[in-house]
Specification:
Chain lengths: 380, 337
């Protein structure tokens, strides 16, 4: 508030505060911010200018292609007339395939239920204030997989027609492979990490051999072996579900990576923690469960989520063994001669990229949140 | 990859010997109630999912025809999409009953992997060039940059052809067909080579399809056809005569629309094809009307061709060598009598 000058005891005294003046332009506001952050010295100025030029060069055509000039309605014909921009009707005509694959159309409500339960379950696990969250974890790890499998595969006695795994596909298949891999690789990885650090030579050796074997071969080779070689070792006529083979391969592969991440966490725990636990008389399982692993896993959350994200994206490799995950089904759709238009493949790939980015970024954000929440006072 | 391939080939050989006594595919198929058919993961006009998520295409129609022949139900078929690498293993290991996946019939494949039952499309490798290049024959392509896919026989065929004709060339190769088209359209090469059915499919993706021509030279023979496992001659006969039936029906003028009516025809040849006379179907373990069912439910070869790859489709492939022999083409089926 502005104040007025008053006589008070013979001197001119200002009774109130002077009003705040805006900071000088040189230290505040957009111009100052830009000068401090973007044009701070010769090299920064140069970098900023180049970056601006790049953004100006790339962004308008990209947005034009994706949004402003894109075909949003009409069918293939509209895209054929305007082939130099994204063809979203292609995604619109096929989104059900991209989501469900070749799953029996009359049975797709089953997938919807699974996806809804999955979404609810994840929300339950992630939302802090939800009631009975321990029960949620138990439910998601034990009941849900059985429930999801029965719903997805079918069960004659329950009146659900069988839908065989070759008909599974699309984003649901991506989720099946990724979630099975994530859920299986976590405990396996912890066991392998503990095994590798064990003082028992046989356990340690076997864990090391397992980890180094699976880490040393490419995932593509694992999938090829599972698909091409494995059936030949079985007697004629005996077949072993292709999807199961792929899921086992992906899980074992991911567990080897997980083991090394967890081992990194174990090594970061000071020796005093082990000694303290032992001094309390805790047996090995309790020591690990109560003292060591909670600390070790907390440290390696970024590494664990990194492995999960890698695993999630690696699921696209199953398309080389003719399983139609999201990327596979989009590629198959591109082959339709009715959609044989220049922009259709690009639109399909952009759609896949956006879908994967949303999932992976979601995981990354949750990881950041967990790190902040579990940050209980000591920096590492 | 070469190593993986040779191991796979060797192992597939070993396995095919193991399975070779089976003479019960038909019983097994009837038992489970459907034909398990291996198709491509996506080849325009031959096997690709349509907007409804149903498989369509020339190769897919053959699978449906076999289902119609065995079950009188063109939908009693399940499709196993296969990559080029795993297709033969899937067949020899018994995962699929028949492989209908634009597979070139060659001597080594016929002896190693299975029994080819005929040809449902005569393909061959060709060249596409921009009209602005002013070239009318592949022999004028000296010094050209050639766009093609990596790791396929097309690369080898080009090398053979250019060397045999003493022409200089450089290869610009990509992994995926879409990349090849984009490179060709952007002018990074003068020529695009792949199978002619593929050229037709990719041409529609060019900015100005009418500014490009397919040259007359065909530099390789690619007879594409379905195959079954070695060792079950009855199942092989069923596949072979399903294919022959579709071609014979076209020759006799039997279509899906008139098949029921034609069964009462006075022509003994047509009667035998449709099973209203004789017991040809029973000889291969099927209903005598198997061919009538195939034509009614799926159509004759010409109908299937027109529907999937013909001039009225996006592929716009003329019949050419795939016309009936009576029209100057190569489609010639052994008679049903």
């Amino acid at each position: 508030m502005a104040t007025t000058d008053q006589y008070s005891g013979g001197g001119i005294v200002n009774a109130g505060d002077l009003p705040d003046k805006p900071a000088p332009i040189r230290t505040d506001g957009a111009i100052a911010w830009m000068r401090d952050n973007l044009f701070d010295g010769v090299s920064n100025t140069l970098f900023s200018l180049v970056a601006f030029a790049l953004v100006l060069y790339v962004l308008p055509p990209a947005l034009g292609w994706l949004i402003f000039n894109a075909n949003w309605s009409g069918g293939a014909e509209a895209c054929r007339i305007n082939p130099d921009a994204a063809c979203w009707p292609f995604v619109g005509a096929r989104w059900e395939q991209f989501l469900y694959g070749f799953y029996e159309k009359s049975e797709r409500w089953r997938l919807n239920i699974i996806l809804a339960v999955l979404a609810l379950g994840i929300a339950w696990l992630v939302w802090e204030k939800a009631p009975a969250r321990k029960f949620a974890a138990l439910f998601m790890l034990s009941v849900f997989p059985v429930f999801a499998f029965i719903m997805m595969y079918g069960n004659e006695t329950l009146g659900l027609p069988i839908v065989d795994t070759p008909q599974w596909g699309g984003f649901t298949l991506t989720l099946v492979i990724a979630l099975s891999g994530i859920v299986a690789s976590m405990p396996l990885g912890i066991l392998l990490a503990l095994g590798r650090r064990s003082k028992m030579p046989v356990v340690s050796l076997l864990s090391t051999v397992f980890i180094e074997f699976w880490r040393g071969i490419p995932l593509v080779a694992v999938l090829f072996m599972a698909t091409i070689m494995f059936p030949l070792f079985l007697p004629a006529g005996v077949t072993f579900d292709q999807l199961l083979r792929a899921v086992i391969g992906v899980s074992l592969f991911a567990s080897a990576y997980m083991a090394e991440v967890v081992r990194g966490g174990l090594q970061a725990i000071p020796k005093g923690q082990y000694e303290g636990a032992m001094a309390l008389g805790l047996p090995y399982p309790k020591m690990m469960r109560l003292i060591i692993l909670p600390q070790a896993l907390k440290i390696v959350i970024p590494g664990i989520v990194n492995t999960f994200i890698g695993l999630f994206k690696d699921t696209t490799l199953v398309l080389i063994i003719a399983l139609f995950d999201l990327l596979g089904i989009v590629q198959a759709s591109i082959a339709d001669p009715n959609w044989s238009i220049k922009s259709v493949p690009y639109t399909g790939y952009v759609f896949v990229a956006i879908s994967f980015w949303i999932c992976c970024y979601g995981m990354a954000r949750y990881s950041r949140y967990l790190e902040a929440k579990l940050h209980t006072g000591h920096e590492r | 990859m070469q190593l993986v391939k040779s191991i796979a080939v060797g192992a597939a050989l070993a396995a095919s010997i193991g399975v070779a006594q089976a003479d019960e595919t038909l019983d097994a198929v009837k038992e489970k109630g459907f034909v398990q058919c291996g198709v491509s993961q996506g080849l325009p006009g031959f096997s690709n999912p349509d907007d409804q998520g149903d498989w369509t295409g020339l190769d897919v129609d053959f699978c449906r025809a076999m289902a119609a022949a065995v079950f009188n139900d063109a939908d009693a078929v399940k499709f196993t999409p296969l990559s080029a690498k795993v297709r033969f293993t899937a067949l020899t290991s018994g995962e699929i009953d028949v492989l209908s996946r634009n597979t070139t019939w060659t001597m080594s494949r016929d002896s190693d992997f299975g029994e080819f039952v005929g040809v449902n499309y005569y393909d061959g490798q060709g060249f596409m060039v921009p009209t602005s290049l002013g070239v009318s024959s592949a022999l004028e392509l000296d010094g050209a940059a050639v766009c093609t896919n990596t790791g396929t026989t097309t690369e080898l065929n080009v090398a053979d052809y250019f060397r045999a004709n003493n022409l200089e060339y450089t290869v610009v190769a990509f992994e995926k067909a879409d990349e090849v088209v984009a490179a060709y359209d952007a002018g990074r090469c003068d020529v695009y080579t792949t199978d002619r059915s593929g050229l037709a499919a990719q041409r529609t993706k060019l900015a100005a399809p009418d500014d490009h021509v397919v040259l007359p030279e065909i530099i390789s023979k690619e007879p594409l056809g379905p195959l079954v496992r070695h060792g079950d001659s009855q199942w092989g006969d069923i596949a072979r005569w399903t294919l022959n039936c579709m071609i014979n029906a076209e020759e006799a003028g039997i279509t899906s629309a008139n098949a029921a009516e034609m069964a009462n025809s006075d022509n003994p040849g047509i009667q035998r094809i449709l099973g209203s006379d004789g017991d040809l179907g029973a000889k291969i373990g099927l209903d005598n009307a198997f061919c009538a069912n195939v034509v009614t439910l799926v159509g004759n070869y010409g109908e299937s061709y027109d529907r999937n790859v013909g001039p009225d489709t996006a592929l716009k492939l003329e019949r050419g060598v795939n016309a009936l022999w009576s029209d100057g083409g190569l489609m010639y089926a052994a008679p049903q009598r």
